[in-house]
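User: Okay, second chain of the day. Same drill as before: sequence in, structure tokens out.
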Amino acid sequence: MSLSQPESARHTKPNPALNVLGTVLLIVGLVALFVPSTIQPLLPPELAGLLVEHAKLLIGLGIALQVIATLTRFKKIIRGGYRLGQQQQAAGPHQPDKGEDVDWTPLKAGGANFRTHHLVQVSPSRLEVRPSIQMMLFCLLFMALGAGVGGVFVVTGIRDGNLMTAVIPGLVGLVFLLTGALLLKSASKRRVFDLSLGGYWRGSGRLNGPQALVTQAEWAWLQEIKVIQLLQERVTSRSDNGRSRSYWSYELNLVLIDGRRLNVMDHGNPGRIRQDAEVIGQFLGVPVLDPFRPSP
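Assistant: Same drill. Structure tokens below.
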């Protein structure tokens, strides 16, 4: 079994009903706002007047529905999948002897189908795991759309003296902005290997000393790390129409001498995560357990 992503593994599309409804509302709102003369001959005067009067609200609702459809899709990809790690392990090759006492079930639920983090050697004694450009752009896109859409409607409402028409689009933009900010904050938490402090941690980029390790979200002494573990999992998400889509996600975990595991990365680029695992293994002087490496 190779650590390669099959062609059939693709992410699910946004919720089709919400996406179509949002698109329709957006188009109707834009037409009513900018070219109202095109709909007035086609509809009863009362209905045409109502659409023109509430064109901005229709645009906001259309954008909101498309945002909800996109968020639903992302949630299904990251958190809504189920994992088949144990079945894959049974079907895969036998693990090395050094991995007999290691838990081979996936440590994290789901996983992204793109590269979310990458490894950076800051100095000869320090490695850091940082968010990838793809992840940064993904988060910034959320924030930019939220700030842009919400800001336009709020400013327009203030200018026209009718803030009520800007409330819903403004709130949707705020939710979008906060979602992107929270995703960026979570992704930006550093994972650090520091030989001078003798520790690994997830949290702050800089610590004053070894005693500060215990204040971090996750931490371990480097001497407690016995192996680097690579494993793969199949993530499957289902759309509302019953169709399922799947992709491979890959975990890089630290296995401690007491059997505990700490996740360092979890994303969909097998080549990069394997390279990062080899660098970390050489940096720490510990083996990398990679039972699914393709045969030469």
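The longest helix spans residues 133-160.

User: Thanks, on to the next one.
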